[in-house]
Amino acid sequence: MRTHLGYGSPHKQDSFEAHGSPLGADEVRLTKEKLGWPLEPSFHIPDAALAQFRQALERGARAQQDWTTMLEAYARAWPNLARELKHSIDGVLPDGWDADIPVFAADAKGMATRVASGKVMNAIAPRLPALIGGSADLDPSTFTALKDRGDFEPPNVGAPDFQGSDGGGWSYAGRNLHFGVREHAMGAIANGLASHGGTLPFTANVPDLFRLHAPADPPRGTHRAACRLRVHARQHCAR
Asked: For a Cys-Cys bond, which of 40, 92, 188, 225 suits 87, CB 3.0-4.6 Å?
């Protein structure tokens, strides 16, 4: 399929000017005339298009009501789980979520921060069911595997190769995400989970791999996006 930049513009179609700059009032008028589009109003919305878009209001209201009805039925059947879900969506941490955080005594030999971080994550995971995430195929190095908390994967995959499994079975209830060697996708997914709400996503990588992406440096792009979106997706870097 071939497309045209600035389709319909008499003087700028398929030019760099149609890509990086406004057509300008005169060229817009000429383009409208060529395409048979009304000159006025300046931003014309055909009645048929407006009617089509307005249908989304009714569809959205029905979808919202369906969701509310389903959630109410769920709360009646499983009140404790429904309360847990609401707290997760509202960003409310459960009581005592930090009760089991380990204390690390001063040690002359020292402990790598990624090892200590992994111990903390596994200590709070049982009390924070919304905690979910993973690494760019680096769990053994970043220590971000939530042990025996399951691997997020369709349960019917039935792959014979279980290398990299963090224990707990493969299902949609799994809390370990295996992103593969896709740092940018990993960060984008975590940002999406954080923006949607209901989860506490985390990701992990190593600084040297960030530099391998220069000059585009996709992981840093997802970090910037998280800042702009004001979402909190925990980014763990291991050395």
From this structure: 92
| Sheet with strand 131-135: strands edge to edge | 170-171, 151-152, 176-178, 131-135, 200-205, 234-237
Chain-centre distance for alpha carbon 100? 28
Catalytic residue among 27, 33, 58, 183: 183
- For the question of whether the overall pTM of this predicted structure is more than 0.85, the answer is no
Query: CA-CA distance, 155 to 44, in Å (whole number)?
Result: 50
The one-letter code for the residue type at 226 is A
**Using CA atoms, how far apart are residues 30 and 224, in angstroms rounded to an integer?**
40
Q: Which two tokens stand for residue 182?
A: 């896709």
Give pairs for 86-90: CB < 8 Å, separation 24+: 88/129, 88/130, 88/197, 88/198, 88/199, 89/197, 89/198
Q: Look at residue 65 and give its three-state secondary structure.
A: helix
Which residues in 43-71 are b (16+ Cβ under 10 Å) and which e? Answer: eeeeeeeeeeeeeeeeeeeeeeeeeeeee
Q: How many Å apart are CA 184 and CA 209, to the nearest integer?
A: 11
pLDDT, tens digit (0-9, with 9 covering 90-100), for 165-191: 888 888 899 999 998 888 888 888 988
183 given a catalytic annotation? yes
